[in-house]
Write a structure and sequence with these properties.
A hairpin with a 2-residue loop joins β2 and β3. The protein starts with 5 loop residues before the first helix and ends with a strand. The radius of gyration is 20 Å and the shape is globular. It has 16 helices and 12 strands. It has an 8-stranded parallel β-sheet with strand order 4-11-10-9-8-7-6-5. The chain has a two-stranded antiparallel ribbon with strand order 1-12. Strands 2-3 form a two-stranded antiparallel sheet. By secondary structure, the protein is an alpha/beta fold. Bound molecules: flavin mononucleotide.
């Protein structure tokens, strides 16, 4: 869609009264259709929600200083990541157990991502197996997010191998979830979706995991998952081992400190995702967008730097790109789209992002992403 076609676009949008526009509207609708436990699990952060709130508020500290008179009739938002050109700078964050939002879960999300040409990062704790998700969207581009198992590293290598075989294009190791954060809403609701078996898709389909269990009843499977998912002893050596065992690019998700970014470079990591897990892990940490400039400086253009946590609309993505992100991950917004309207909901959320970003880049005087929007703190 070129900017010149926007009149058509506006007409299309005005007909779409069934679909929410803003994040807040999607969230409200999602809260009405999701089970209370599932919605509580998805919507809240850890501790007193300080970081979850800060993630969103921090975007407002940054103000755009637009440029004028730079023919923006055709905004090219394409980006190059690991040898592939994508039409837009968006990816879908890894979100586990998506059947909490909609029965089709990750299958619907994968189809939406395929339709929109956006990479979908599939979680280790997806409800469906990574193979089923790949089959649901054969022309999609999926990445696989790994929760490394330190109790059984062979299980992790097996999942990485399966992902590679199933056509996944990158491995994302999440490093901020060595154990679950202090989530009071879930404690209050007595709600643990992992314990209920929602996240078993990639485990029950894994030969290494199934072989490690004496019994294959749900209770044993869940106990096995809970044992493997905690990994407080994770170190850079594990990252190095994963790198050795795959041809795919390996990204680290959850980096907030400049020195960790430098260490990642020294271990040959292929990309960094600046993230605080949407404020669900350690409460009180720096907002993702505030950590971004330091990481970009440390990485100095050597590998792609991506960002998530708190991205709610197109203008947030524009600010992240302005501060040096190569691409931006959308998390909760797409999950709420999924909850409200399944595959179509995810597509609508993505469309809103793409369209607002395009308009915002144009009004900032940017014709393609080799040009940087100027931002300042007010
Ligand atoms: C319900 C839920 C489940 C999540 N599951 C995972 C996961 O399995 N793996 C992972 O790396 N991150 C997971 N995340 C974190 C997201 O990948 C992402 O970092 C976060 O949603 C970004 O914050 P935002 O959604 O508030 O923008 C999850 C987030 C939510 C909300």
């Amino acid at each position: 869609m070129t900017v010149a076609n926007r009149d058509i676009l506006m007409k299309d949008i005005s007909k779409e009264t069934d679909f929410p526009l803003s994040f807040e509207e999607w969230e409200q609708k999602a809260s009405e259709v999701m089970h209370a436990g599932g919605y509580g699990y998805a919507s809240t952060g850890a501790g007193r929600n300080e970081t979850a709130k800060r993630n969103e508020e921090a975007f407002s500290k940054w103000a755009i200083v637009p440029r004028m008179l730079n023919d923006v009739s055709n905004v090219d938002m394409s980006v190059n990541l690991f040898g592939r050109r994508y039409k837009t700078p968006f990816l879908l964050s890894p979100i586990g157990m998506q059947t909490l939002a909609h029965e089709e879960g990750e299958l619907a999300t994968a189809k939406a991502a395929e339709a929109m040409g956006v990479p979908f990062i599939v979680s280790t704790v997806s409800a469906y197996s990574l193979e089923e998700i790949a089959e649901a969207a054969p022309n999609g581009c999926n990445w696989f997010q790994l929760y490394f198992s330190t109790v059984n590293p062979e299980l992790s290598y097996s999942m990485v191998e399966r992902a590679e075989k199933a056509g996944y294009e990158a491995i994302v190791i999440t490093v901020d979830t060595t154990m679950a954060g202090w989530r009071e809403t879930d404690m209050r609701n007595q709600f643990s979706p992992l314990s209920l078996g929602y996240g078993k898709g990639n485990y029950v389909s894994d030969p290494v995991f199934m072989k490690s269990l004496e019994n294959h009843d749900l209770e044993s499977i869940v106990a096995g998952i809970l044992e493997n998912i905690q990994h407080p002893s994770l170190t850079w050596k594990d990252v190095a081992e994963v790198k050795k065992r795959t041809k795919l690019p390996v990204l680290i998700k959850g980096i907030l400190h400049q020195d960790d970014a430098k260490t990642a470079l020294s271990y040959g990591v292929d990309g960094i995702i600046v993230s605080n897990h949407g404020g669900r892990q350690l409460d009180g940490v720096i907002a993702s967008i505030d950590a971004l400039p330091g990481i970009v400086e440390a990485v100095d253009g050597k590998i792609p730097v991506l960002l998530d946590s708190g991205v709610r609309r197109g203008i947030d993505a524009v600010k992240a790109l302005a501060l040096g992100a190569d691409a931006v991950l959308i998390g909760r917004p797409f999950l709420y789209g999924l909850a409200v309207h399944g595959q179509q909901g995810v597509e609508k959320v993505l469309e809103r992002f793409v369209q607002e970003t395009e308009v915002s880049l144009a009004l900032s005087g940017i014709a393609d992403l080799s040009q940087r929007v100027t931002v300042t703190t007010r």
